[in-house]
Specification:
441 residues, single chain, 21% strand, nine-stranded mixed beta sheet, six-stranded mixed beta sheet, alpha/beta
């Protein structure tokens, strides 16, 4: 069966499920596999629960279904995940609209949300929800495209070489941006150069199609060094003296929320007060401004959108509890984002300060070195209290800092010895589950 033939089935049954526990009547079940599950084993069950079709790649399952007549409602393919991605691409091709692809080591979700919010001032926008940014999440995002949508914003994540290449081939973006590159997922990428090469696969994909546009931070030497030929560049910057920069920005204050000024190509300055914590968010805002201007969103509407955006999902959130002020950034952590968060917290004119930091995951052979660097940086910060969570800190000298194996130990300590009146930075990889701490702070 060709993808076009499979798409003909999809048009009659345009609801996709990959979970046999959720089988809407008349839907299509894709029997995806993972490390601990095989969707093929549940294909027959999915058909019995209401799915009209099941897409499988297990010949034995298909053979058993033949004996009961259910194979008439099954599609046997060489690889279900590949068919899933190919079908999503075929669906995407039905829409002649701009598709903005966004990737980067840090800030991609915040940038995606800012871009979505800005573009929504003028367009009906379809954008990635949550962190649906991998080889299953991106196709699921594309399947949400509907005739009413005028523009799409698709986030793409990566932890191994080739990931962005695959996602870009599925989404076929017409324009895109890389927020930045840094030391993350080094266990998968091998090195910073591996990160740069993989993120640059978005640029490589855009370079294959006429009329593509790249939005690029002209201050970032890593990104400007890998820009391809033959694409339209739209540049933004804080510091660059490049006369071709389209949007310039400056920090006005971070007290604690970011206030900034931006202007278009030496035009009039616009000042915006945001709900974002951290000077590092200026680049994310400028990216959204640049995309908005490219798609003819009025400057006043851009400012209103950015001023009204409130972050969620444990990304640079400022939360006031009955006893403390919390800066919650517990969704991810790597050496680059950790440095940015600590630098920003250090310059905040508040007191007393406390940092509860979780270990940084997936750093491979660089893990010990990077955690030692983190501890040394913390010693220079001069915070009133520092608590470190995770076994990566076990054999690192941390004089004056408290160590905990996991978040449950931290919670127990906070119940026994409550902390009051502090400004507290909470940051760590999602696996540390530090997002559980605000309830006891």
């Amino acid at each position: 069966m060709t993808i076009q033939e499979l798409y003909s089935i999809y048009k009659k049954h345009p609801v996709i499920t990959t979970d046999s526990r959720n089988c809407p009547e008349g839907s299509m079940f894709f029997a995806l596999k993972g490390e601990s599950f095989d969707g093929n084993k549940f294909a027959t069950q999915a058909l019995g629960k209401g799915c009209a079709w099941a897409v499988v790649d297990d010949l034995q399952v298909y053979g058993e279904a033949t004996e009961t007549g259910l194979s008439a409602r099954m599609v046997l393919v060489p690889d279900v995940l590949q068919a899933f991605k190919d079908l999503a691409r075929e669906h995407r091709r039905q829409f002649n609209i701009p598709v903005v692809g966004i990737t980067g080591t840090n800030g991609k979700t915040t940038t995606k949300e800012l871009v979505r919010t800005v573009l929504a001032q003028k367009y009906n926008v379809m954008a990635t929800e949550g962190n649906f940014n991998n080889d299953v999440g991106v196709p699921k995002t594309l399947f949400r495209l509907a005739p009413e949508h005028e523009i799409a914003v698709v986030e793409m994540g990566a932890s191994h070489p080739g990931d962005i290449k695959t996602l870009a081939e599925t989404a076929e973006p017409t324009c895109g941006l890389i927020t930045n590159v840094g030391k993350a997922h080094l266990q998968g990428f091998g090195s910073l150069q591996g990160v740069i090469k993989t993120k640059g696969e978005l640029y490589d994909n855009l370079a294959t199609r006429d009329g593509s546009v790249i939005f690029v931070n002209a201050d970032n030497d890593y990104l400007t060094a890998i820009l391809p030929q033959g694409v339209t560049l739209v540049q933004y910057a804080q510091h660059s003296s490049n006369e071709n920069v389209n949007v310039q920005g400056k920090i006005v204050a971070c007290d604690p929320f970011l206030r900034l000024r931006w202007r278009e190509a030496r035009g009039d300055w616009h000042e915006v007060a945001t709900h974002l914590i951290g000077s590092y968010n200026l680049d994310n805002v400028l990216a959204a401004v640049t995309v908005g201007l490219h798609f003819d969103v009025e400057p006043q509407a851009i400012c209103q959108a950015i001023a009204g955006y409130v972050p969620s999902n444990n990304r640079s959130q400022l939360t006031h509890t009955a006893t403390n002020h919390l800066i919650v950034d517990a969704y991810n952590a790597n050496p680059t984002s950790m440095t940015a968060a600590l630098d920003n917290f250090s310059i905040m004119k508040v007191s007393p300060k406390m940092a509860i930091l979780g270990e940084m995951r997936e750093l491979g052979e660089s893990s010990r070195e990077e955690h030692m660097k983190l501890v040394e940086r913390l010693k220079r910060c001069g915070f009133d209290q520092v608590w470190l969570v995770g076994k990566e800190f076990d054999d690192i000298p941390c004089d004056g800092f408290r160590k905990f194996d996991d978040v449950e130990q931290v919670k127990a300590a906070l119940v026994e010895q409550p902390v009051h009146g502090h400004y507290i930075l909470i940051k760590g990889s999602n696996g540390n589950r530090l997002f559980l701490l605000p309830e006891v702070l």
